[in-house]
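Researcher: Next sequence.
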Amino acid sequence: MKSAFKTIYLIALLGALGLVASPTLAELSPTKDPSPFGQALIIYYSQTGVTDKVARQIQSLIGGDLLLVETERTLPKEEKAIIDAMKNNWREKIAVPTKTPAPDVAKYDTVFVGSAVWFAQPALPMQDFLNKMDFLGKKVIVFGTSGSGPGQAYDLLAQSIKNGQVLPGGKIFDRQTLLSEDLPVLISAWLTDLRSRAQKSQ
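Model: Next structure:
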């Protein structure tokens, strides 16, 4: 143990002197033990790739399986083009059908549910997908990514979890956080906070 601390101290000292690149918190303290999340499933919708980045970072830290929700028709990849294409659906409350089948969550202990935020709400494809889901009493943690403000996205995501136990501490990551070079460290800190909350509730 003393040797490990000496190694970390030496790396940090060399980094401060500019002799080596300073490691991130995630690199110094990788958290591969999934407890108390158990076997995790990370379900998410990502159109521009931002939510995908967050979902994969979560997986790199706790393990588990990824499930990307896909739409029946191809949507634009650029943010402004998506908003322009979806305005009518949003105003008229027209669903955007998804082709991804609802998974059987029986073998999982915890399900993460992540979505991009459109019009201050969960992305329309994620809303469609969640209408097909039954979480079978599993623990659920919701997260999202937003470039212009979360609005009601968190509450609407939480309310869409049918037959699931939504745990406190979920998060909508804002633009400043998503653009930060420290994003992996911030996600690691968020997961540590979720662990602490879960352990206190046991």
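Model: Residues 137 and 163 are 5 Å apart (CA to CA). Confidence is low (pLDDT under 50) at residues 1-34.
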